[in-house]
């Protein structure tokens, strides 16, 4: 049986590219996004009662990867990027139906002109991600304290961040334009966004990495296990 779906909302996110988006939600609580209701769903009634819940489930499409199809086995970064496991034993983005699910924190419900939106925190979604459903998180049944986490049992160890003197003014400017930017940068870099093969290799301290957060290009180098911010360029 096939079933066609239309997005009920679009996600507005500080993450403007896939690189450096955390691999799961709630690892970067400073990431604040917005779910903008679409079409027939853009009405206050659809959200009535949602404010009673602290967290939400989002069902969404890995829309930027759909064209690349899927494979039955994947190499999760948590296993170093080499070992292969079945797609259904992973949270990989290349999946048969291209669907993702994330638990996020509900910040507030609001309206701007005719647009109804839900502000969320801790998302792991790219800007523009189509949302197919929003459901309240129900702790008594959704939380399973005795659950086994397999190869992803432990949260990754966070990496520290240092802002190099040459980047202090640019970081302050980004903070002024986007309050919370410094914390966002720190939490994003703490996840070590480098590809697993680079993170596990002998570090190349001269190599500079960059990622777009909001309208800034955050640039850093990895020196002695620390993320050193070298610049924050306004785009
Ligand atoms: N929590 C979700 C899940 O388990 O289904 C997503 C996990 S997936 C490993 C998280 C990654 O999806 C992010 O690091 C980002 O690179 C990627 N991603 C997020 N939104 C996407 C989108 N719209 N299209 C393609 N990839 C996306």
UniProtKB/TrEMBL annotation:
Keywords: S-adenosyl-L-methionine. Signal peptide: none annotated. It comes from the Bacteria. The keyword S-adenosyl-L-methionine applies. The keyword S-adenosyl-L-methionine applies. Gene3D superfamilies: YaeB-like. PROSITE patterns: TSAA_1, TSAA_2. It holds the Pfam family TrmO_C. CDD domains: UPF0066. Residues 5-146 form the TsaA-like domain. NCBIfam families: tRNA_TsaA. Belongs to the tRNA methyltransferase O family. This is tRNA (N6-threonylcarbamoyladenosine(37)-N6)-methyltransferase TrmO. It comes from Ferrimonas pelagia.
């Amino acid at each position: 049986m096939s079933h066609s779906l239309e997005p009920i909302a679009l996600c507005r996110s500080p993450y403007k590219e896939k690189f450096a988006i955390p691999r799961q939600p709630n690892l970067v609580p400073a990431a604040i996004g917005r779910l903008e209701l679409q079409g027939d769903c853009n009405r206050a009634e659809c959200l009535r009662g949602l404010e009673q819940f602290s967290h939400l489930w989002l069902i969404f499409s890995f829309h930027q990867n759909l064209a690349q199809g899927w494979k039955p086995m994947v190499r999760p970064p948590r296993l170093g990027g080499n070992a292969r496991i079945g797609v259904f034993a992973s949270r990989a983005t290349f999946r048969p139906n291209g669907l993702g699910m994330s638990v996020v924190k509900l910040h507030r419900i609001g309206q701007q002109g005719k647009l109804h939106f839900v502000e969320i925190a801790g998302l792991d979604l790219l800007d523009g991600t189509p949302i197919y459903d929003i459901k309240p998180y129900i702790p008594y049944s959704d939380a399973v304290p005795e659950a086994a986490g397999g190869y992803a049992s432990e949260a990754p160890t966070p990496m520290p961040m240092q802002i190099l003197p040459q980047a202090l003014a640019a970081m302050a400017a980004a903070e002024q334009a986007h309050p919370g930017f410094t914390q966002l940068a720190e939490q994003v870099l703490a996840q070590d966004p480098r590809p697993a093969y680079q993170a596990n290799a002998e570090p190349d301290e001269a190599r500079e990495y960059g990622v777009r957060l909001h309208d800034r290009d955050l640039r850093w180098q990895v020196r002695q296990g620390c993320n050193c911010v070298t610049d924050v360029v306004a785009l």
